[in-house]
Amino acid sequence: MPAHTQKPLITIIAAISANRGLGKNNQLLWKIPQDLSFFKKVTTGSPIIMGNKTYFSIGRPLPNRLNIVVSRTLVSQSIQIDGCEVVPSLKEAIALATSYLTLHRFNHSERSTQLIGTPEDSSILNTRPISGSHGMPQPQTQAEIFIIGGAQIYTHALESKVVDRVLLTEIHQSSDADVFFPVLQEKEWQEVSRESHFDETNGLSFDFVDYRKRA
Question: Is pLDDT at 150 greater than 80 in this prediction?
Answer without folding.
Answer: yes
